[in-house]
Amino acid sequence: MQIGILTGGGDAPGLNAAIRAVARSAFAEGADVLGVRNGWSGLLDAGDVRPLRPEDVSGILTRGGTILGTSRANPLAEAGAMDSVAANLARLGIDALVAMGGDDTLKVAAALAARGLPLVGVPKTVDNDLQVTEYCIGFDTAVGVVTEAVDRLHTTAASHHRVMVVEAMGRDAGWVTLMGGLAGGADMIVIPEFAVDLGEVIDHLHTRHRQGKTFSIIAVSEGAEVAGLPALPASSVSGEPLDAFGHPLLSRRGIGERLGRQLEAETGFETRVTVLGYTQRGGSPTAYDRIWATRVGVAAYQLVSEGHFGAIPVKRGDQVESATLSEVVAHPRLVPEDLYRLAQIFY
Ligand code: F6P
Fold first, then answer.
1. pTM above the 0.70 mark?
2. Domain CATH number, residue 178
3. What is the pLDDT of residue 169?
């Protein structure tokens, strides 16, 4: 038996822990493991794979990124590319492929599984926006980065009596911003799921000032919209480059910078902006990410060994259960209103 492992989409801390978990489970049962390089592009054209030996997965538990490399290559978007993936799986003698990724990577995996190919998924995305599962690899580490940033911004904001705007990742889901903002005690949280007006933000800053709070921290998601902000030029939005899955690079919209500039202009409060960017995806995974990446990795191997294809391990409560690939990618899981309202109690 030979198992392929592939990591696709944005990298996330904890991917190596999951690779190690799948590989170590396989080695324990005498199976061979093939590492697919750089996401789906490693199964296109001539293929780019390398055998993984026990020593290749030794010492990687604590390492961020992915030893396999990743990319946003999308075989669903290129004519003949899905056939090329299928042909490479057969040619390379891959009896089962474990694809670790977020909705983009797993949509490709679901489509391959629908063709009858032996695919199993592993949930990974710092955005935490997959359906069904309560855990996606990398989210906990990303939230930790935002939390630490908000903590650190507090002391400098208080010293200078400034407004601090901190921009976090998450694409169209506000999980990273909301959880990091909650944990760090942000004074306002602006996420894509719930519309906010510039006037509301300004009123809130004035209210805090009247209460003697001479600094404020505003956490904003890269994908959030704030009504009342000067619109981006239509040409800059329509001309945005898209990745292979059709997503614009939301950080280029500069919501944090635009919001900060406008707040300063309209309130007179000195304002600074911090864009956390790729620091949220870099570095060593938290203990939580290491443990759950290990648990879903081991479970992914179990699904493979049971021949349970088209499936993906998910976290439900303290248990690892299994769901179908098509369920988890059906549509993004967004922040529910009750959680958003809970955060507002602390504004
Ligand atoms: O999906 C993970 C993510 O980090 C998003 O939060 C962000 O919008 C996007 O990837 C950035 O994409 P890239 O890695 O292609 O710059």
1. yes
2. 3.40.50.460
3. 98
